[in-house]
Automatic annotation (TrEMBL):
Cofactor comment: Binds 1 Mn(2+) or Fe(2+) ion per subunit.
Compartment(s): Cytoplasm
Single GO biological process annotation from the record: negative regulation of DNA-templated transcription
Cofactor entry: Mn(2+); Fe(2+); Zn(2+)
An MF annotation (GO) of this entry: transcription cis-regulatory region binding
Gene Ontology cellular component annotations, sorted alphabetically: cytoplasm
Protein name as it appears in the record: Putative Fur family transcriptional regulator
PANTHER family recorded: PEROXIDE-RESPONSIVE REPRESSOR PERR, ZINC UPTAKE REGULATION PROTEIN
Binding site for Fe cation: H130
This protein's UniProt keywords: Cytoplasm, DNA-binding, Iron, Manganese, Metal-binding, Repressor, Transcription, Transcription regulation, Zinc
Length: 150
């Protein structure tokens, strides 16, 4: 069984246990998120699936994303603009974001877990999470820029 297939089965089991009915649209949105490595927006998910589900609306996508988020299956990544991105990987990790094309790549750096403890001791806050993003130019955009500069 492929890794994405087992993730899909586990996610469907979680939804069923919480009383969520598995509709064809819900299944397709979940499968798209599991297989996406781009951290898509709701609009991107809608555009990718609208050909298979002509009666599906953007509101359907948003509603399902809310259900998935509330079930703990996905993370919503708001980036200050009006369109959040969605990440199926809910394990603690960080993001590298391309300034040019917007591509987002996951990475993990366990040493940063200490930041929460340090912040709590310095500020007196009860810290419950943190978020780290690094920005730069992805390898594809670097290559494109290098060929344009020749």
């Amino acid at each position: 069984m492929s890794n994405s297939h087992s993730h899909l089965r586990e996610a469907i089991d979680v939804l069923k246990k919480t009383g969520v009915r598995i509709t064809p649209q819900r299944h397709a949105i979940l499968e798209f998120l599991i297989n996406a490595d781009t951290h898509p927006t709701a609009d991107e998910i809608y555009r990718a699936l609208e050909g298979n589900f002509p009666n599906m609306s953007v509101a359907t996508v948003y509603n399902n994303l809310r259900v998935f988020r509330e079930a703990g299956l996905i993370k919503e990544l708001p980036y200050g603009d009006s369109s959040s991105r969605f990440d199926f990987s809910t394990s603690e990790h960080y993001h590298a974001i391309c300034n040019e094309c917007g591509k987002i790549v996951d990475f993990h750096y366990p040493g940063l877990d200490e930041v929460e403890h340090f912040a709590a001791s310095v500020t007196g806050y009860e810290v419950n999470k943190h978020r780290l993003e690094v920005y730069g130019t992805c390898p594809e955009c670097q290559a494109k820029n290098n060929t344009q500069n020749i």
